Amino acid sequence: MGIYTRTGDEGQTSVIGGRVSKDDDRVEAYGTIDELNSFVGQAISFAEGEKFADIRTQLEEIQQELFDCGSDLAFVKINESKYKVKDELAERLESWIDACQEENPKVERFIIPGGSTLSSTLHVCRTVCRRAERRAVTLGKHTDINPAVRRYLNRLSDYFFVVARTANVRQGVPDVEYVRSKKVFRK
């Protein structure tokens, strides 16, 4: 099987149910999810050793779910029976977030991406995830999409923030705080 088809040479690409311009909002949305998936793969490569086994397993599952998100956004016509992403995935992310939060120190100031290599990469995942969510919101303004994808991406960016902090904790590396910030997170 050849890798090149030449069918996109004129700036069009196939989606489920038709063809669209390669800069269509739909392609932007699932393309950004694909970019995110690449960074998640990079994060997995940095999550070495037994102390990151749970995070590695979670990230591997997230990679599969990101493909599901992209697939759901690739439908030109609504086909709810074919959707793969369900709200249960966002709920499961919440349980992972809660478990990681128990390991993390209390946040008092804004956190700047940094610390360990794994943490920094997870922060890149967070910011690309936020962009993917924005692209999904843009797409949803003019066409129906699976709303569970948008909720999943919103929760996933929270997961990346929390797990980036956990990665630093497990390596004994402090978070990088925004030093010009007053204490803004109080309970």
From TrEMBL:
Residues 3-167 form the Cobalamin adenosyltransferase-like domain. One of its GO terms (molecular function) is corrinoid adenosyltransferase activity. Its EC number is 2.5.1.17. Pfam families: Cob_adeno_trans. Belongs to the Cob(I)alamin adenosyltransferase family. Pathway: Cofactor biosynthesis; adenosylcobalamin biosynthesis; adenosylcobalamin from cob(II)yrinate a,c-diamide: step 2/7. It comes from the Bacteria. Keywords: ATP-binding, Cobalamin biosynthesis, Nucleotide-binding, Transferase. The keyword Transferase applies. NCBIfam families: PduO_Nterm (TIGR00636). This is Corrinoid adenosyltransferase. InterPro entries: CblAdoTrfase-like, CblAdoTrfase-like_sf, PduO-typ. It catalyses: 2 cob(II)alamin + reduced [electron-transfer flavoprotein] + 2 ATP = 2 adenosylcob(III)alamin + 2 triphosphate + oxidized [electron-transfer flavoprotein] + 3 H(+); 2 cob(II)yrinate a,c diamide + reduced [electron-transfer flavoprotein] + 2 ATP = 2 adenosylcob(III)yrinate a,c-diamide + 2 triphosphate + oxidized [electron-transfer flavoprotein] + 3 H(+).
